[in-house]
Amino acid sequence: LAESREPAALPPSRQRKRPPSPGSAPATPPPVPRPSCTTRSPALPPPPPAIFYGPVEPGNPVVISFESDLSHCLSFLRRKRGAGASGAREQEATSLFNIWNNYKSRFPDWYFNEKLVKVGDQLMEMKEYKLAVSHCYGSYLQQVSSVNINESGLDVDQLNSNFFPNGFRDQSAVCTLHVLYARNICLYKMVCENDIDLLNQDSVKTCFRILNLFQLIMQMTLPHEHLCWHVYNGTIHMYTICRHLMIVGQSAKVLEYLLWACACMESSVPLLAVHYLTWRSTLYAAVCQCYYDCQFGIYGELFARRGLIKIDELKQMESMSSSSLSMETKKKFKEATVRMAVMIFKRSAFEPRRRPKGVFRPRMKMNLREAQHLPWPRTITERLLMEIFDCGSAHFFAIVEALFDKNRRTLIPGPPVPDEVEVRDVISELFFAGIVISKQ
User: Fold this and answer.
1) Disulfide engineering: 227 pairs with which of 46, 221, 363, 399, CB 3.0-4.6 Å?
2) Which pairs from 416-419 meet CB under 8 Å and 24+ separation?
């Protein structure tokens, strides 16, 4: 028999693949290798600081990028605010937060803090007070100290040691003072935006917290004459908030802050100059008005007389230092004197006419209809005006101030409080004199 041979095997390319028989399981593909779970991409190195490219100045590429991002953010916010877009504030707040975080480690502290203050001032000019406080001024204060500036028990020593450890001769001290003042102003503006009438008690409490912080700052800076302009600015901000609180009936509580402002103006030698006399008289008049609002008219008159003494002392010093006073200086002295005289007239017009209790005194009343044809002065009130003031504008100013009294219903029909006939007569005479002056 011939030897049987097996057929030669075909190459793989020519081998036929048998179709899978029905019912048989399909062939599984080979497993695909997966990356190990422990394999991680290498971390990117942190961006180089600005000093890597040279001095931190306008030509530095990091500075250019930083300025470009800030400019774009503020420009976008300014456009959206002008268009009245509601979501622009939240969007740009996030953008500004990311910018600070991205560039904080790339700049030295002094440069980064300067930018915080500069951007905060720009946001304040744009009336974005909340952004200025939360993203700029608040961040700056956190860089300086970890103490919470809103703590109720904060005193002068704590404020001085934490925020001014190197004293007020340090370059950063002036910047920190600016931030403290600007932050307080922004907080007050935020209160005015949300509750202009101060109907919410939280708004009133916020105003008093701001006043307390202003008082602490002024107490720190008062012994340093080169910081007198901070004391002056503090009195302006304190007066603004106090007048707002006086309108809503908080005169008794703001009196101490106005007295403090007057004491600061009198304790700082540079602020005793004639240049600030008009502002001092404004503070004096505000204190007198507080006393009148609290129905302590006698103290209001006494404080006004004290103000006249201070004005006269300054006038004597100016006369001794110079041979003759300029017209502008004389005008300032006259204006301050009239303001104090008006506060004295505010009580003097009524008190001498009151009938003492238990003493009978006949009532002398003039017929105003018949007196209108008589020459000036015609009534007791007009004679008192002529004795104190020397011009028609001062007469009218005194009449308006004398008629203004929160405790007296002057223009509302009804008897005055208290219901005294003599008070009614004075009010009638004041109106009678005011009508004649207004026609001149």
Assistant:
1) 221
2) none
Of the candidates 378, 353, 354, 382, the residue with the CA atom closest to the CA atom of residue 368: 378
Rounded to whole angstroms, what are the CA distances from 73 to 41, 47, 146? 33, 21, 28
Query: Which segments of 309-412 are extended strands (E)?
Result: none
Tokens linked to 224: 């340093």
Its sign, for the CA torsion 273, 274, 275, 279, is: positive
Cα-flanking dihedrals φ and ψ of residue 12, to 5°?
A: -60, -30
Q: Give the tens place of pLDDT for each residue, 317-375.
A: 998 887 788 899 999 999 999 999 999 999 998 887 776 665 555 555 666 666 677 77
Under a CB-based contact definition with an 8 Å cutoff, are residues 278 and 336 in contact? Answer: yes
- H-type helices in 84-200, by residue range? 88-103, 109-125, 129-132, 138-144, 156-163, 171-194
In what helix (H) or strand (E) does residue 185 lie, and over which residues does it extend? helix 171-194
The upper half-sphere exposure of residue 201, i.e. CA atoms within 13 Å in the direction of its Cβ, equals 0
Task: Give the rounded distance of the alpha carbon of 231 from its chain centre.
Answer: 14
Residues 298, 350: Cα–Cα separation, whole Å = 12
Instruction: Output the pLDDT for position 87.
Output: 58
DSSP character for 236?
A: H
User: Residue 223 burial by CB count (10 A; 0-12/13-18/19+): exposed, middle or buried?
Assistant: exposed
Asked if 140 and 112 count as a contact pair (C-beta separation under 8 A), the reply is: no
How much is the pTM? 0.82
DSSP 3-state helix, strand, coil percentages of the chain (rounded to 5)? 65, 0, 35
CA 378 distance to own-chain centroid: 48
- Tell me the average confidence (pLDDT) per consecutive run of 10 residues in the chain, 440 residues long: 44 50 52 52 58 65 86 85 62 84 85 92 92 92 86 83 87 91 96 94 95 95 92 97 94 96 95 95 96 93 96 92 84 95 92 67 62 77 89 89 72 58 82 82
Give the whole-angstrom CA distance, residue 83 versus residue 376.
60
Which two structure tokens, joined as six digits, stand for 50? 């600005």
Long-range pairs, 202-207, Cβ under 8 A, ≥24: 204/245, 204/248, 204/250, 207/241, 207/244, 207/245
